[in-house]
TrEMBL record:
PANTHER family: PROTEIN O-MANNOSYL-TRANSFERASE TMTC4 (PTHR44227:SF3), PTHR44227
Principal location class: endoplasmic reticulum
Gene: Tmtc4
UniProt name for this protein: dolichyl-phosphate-mannose--protein mannosyltransferase
Lineage: Eukaryota, Metazoa, Chordata, Craniata, Vertebrata
Single GO molecular function: dolichyl-phosphate-mannose-protein mannosyltransferase activity
Entry annotated with the keyword Glycoprotein: no
The protein's enzyme class: transferase
One protein family per Pfam: TMTC_DUF1736
Amino acid sequence: QIFNQHNAEALSLEQAFHRMAQMEPNLDHDVSWFLLPSYWAKMVVALISFLCFANSYDGDFVFDDSEAIINNKDLRAETPLGDLWYHDFWGSKLSSNTSHKSYRPLTVLTFRINYLLAGGFYPVGFHVINIILHCTISVLMIDVFSILLGGLQFSNKGRRLNLAPKSSLLAALLFAVHPVHTECVAGIVGRADLLCALFFLLSFLGYCKAFRENKEGHTFSVLWVLVSVILGAIAMLCKEQGITILGLNAVFDALVINKINLLELVQKLLHKDKSLENVGQLRKGLLFRITLLMSGGASILYIRWRIMGTGPPAFTEVDNPASFADSLFVRAINYNYYYSLNAWLLLCPWWLCFDWSMGCIPLIKSVSDWRIIALAALWFCLIGLICQALCSEDSHKRRILTLGLGFLIIPFLPASNLFFRVGFVIAERVIYLPSIGYCILFTYGFSLLSKQAKKKKILAVAVLGILLINVMRCALRSSQWRSEEQLFRSALSVCPLNAKVHYNVGKNLADKGNQSAAIKYYREAVRLNPKYVHAMNNLGNILKERNELHEAEELLSLAVQIQPDFAAAWMNLGIVQNSLRRFEEAEQSYWTAIKHRKKYPDCYYNLGRLYADLNRHIDALNAWRNATVLKPEHSLAWNNMIILLDNTGNLAQAEAVGREALELIPNDHSLMFSLANVLGKSQKYKESEALFLKAIKANPNAASYHGNLAVLYHRWGNLDLAKKHYEVSLKLDPMAPGTKENYNLLRRKLEQLQKRGG
């Protein structure tokens, strides 16, 4: 009985404390929205965020996934784990001139774990983790928004109170269903943004956990401040934006914990007001905490700088045209226009594109361009919000607007081009964190409208409609991210002037064997960007395969003229020149390619083919040997070495090379076939037969395999088996060279034997 009475007293004290806290200005007083218990609110947010992106779970690897995952050697077990700390996001050494300097080792580590657990490159596991991460982040947003919108208040037991349950639920739902997040969730490389956001939020919540309220004011835990700094460092190791949480924690501390009025503080400083002495006493803890945050941030940046080196990432003009403009005015006006477009994507996320570079957004070059209106509107809104955030007499309003603007602007700063050049014009993925600020401002705006509206239910239905439309848009957009074909084609209507969009559509068609359609898109890419060397290279390749050699040569020559160190274009130009029987020029092109890319096995392979055509056998063998040294699994180079040695009568050497090749590539049926031919000529019939049969098992529809096995049996004297395989070969390919003649010879021999037997 005494125990129950004690509990009841404690509960009534906590309820009284909660009621006192709610007497302060509160968004929920005006918001006409659903009030759910905390557990149910989180369940609803998790379920809705899952429904938005669930249909992306079985999508393919698309766009940047190929480079960041499939072609990234850091995911494979043979790469030492320690290398992840010295490589960029794409697997290149940070010290390399070609590195993008995107240092995200923890994100790459999660990709590696995905790869090892799945036993290979199976995208389902990668997509499922992304969906789970977004659902987790959306649920955490309820706690974050309850602090940002309702303030940081604790009960007498030290339990944090949610003073804005309705507002925080609405803001979390807005975040969970925002279509601009699709790239982060449905695109696997968006894992970097998701992991960064997760630790970003945990750092913020950890910083809030450092404070407890008592009768003497705020005390704080140094341990939790340090934990927050460590979580911020982890966020940065997932993606660069993570470091900005330390700045936001400082802003939160000043505005919410210390309740500083910035405008009043500036006025007192200017007038040397004596009351600042009392303010200074209040903020001794603040200065110490900000010192901890700044020291932690500086240490993190220094360590990263030491690992990354001083060289900036190498970007080209097509990646970010405004940053290459000579005029400071043109750069400034276009950067601001890009900001307005990012803001528009938050307000109206209907036109979404996987890539906004390469002419998608033409540069503004004069004030007469009508698009100036967009950046004027942006700054009109921002200045209005900043004035309200600084000058309003309502402390509650000042706090919410300042935090909303802080979370909108500060995480966006690394992508703003203000401190360094970035490699994109607009990237939807970088708006993932800034959208937190948008959700705060939207929710606050909704509360103001609700306060003025007479029919609040109509306003609530309108917001429900926006949420529903966003859910549908997320589902549609995530389905477009399921395959490259859908993703690239969806961009044609959004960015028809983007050469990269046409290039990617063309590449996708070419990979599927539709060369005629691919040519059309490659030509359009070159028309939109006459310096697009990769489009020229791919178009030249297709024309080369279609035997349109002269146009292919023109395109490839132009590509290397525009970009003299483009090794792939030099190699392809060499192949075309070889086909045109201009052997000296072809040899020179191959060596130029190797000069610009020293480890280029395919170029050595093609150089070997050129030397073989010129009967320079030693040079050909050396070139192919170089190809296999650089790429031990280069089957074509091994095969050509075996065949050349076989044709020149060097059977022992051919056999040695064949055995060496099969040790490295034991399941390559073409190597089995070539070595079987050599062994047959060396009269090692049993071993030759075993290899032929193994090759046929791997590729049963190869007429030449059956035909050559028949020749082996013919020589060996196994005439019935020879007859059987000749017939299979002719059935598969009635025009197989030599097979019909050999079969007729065998039949005559069998007839003679039958006559003698008769």
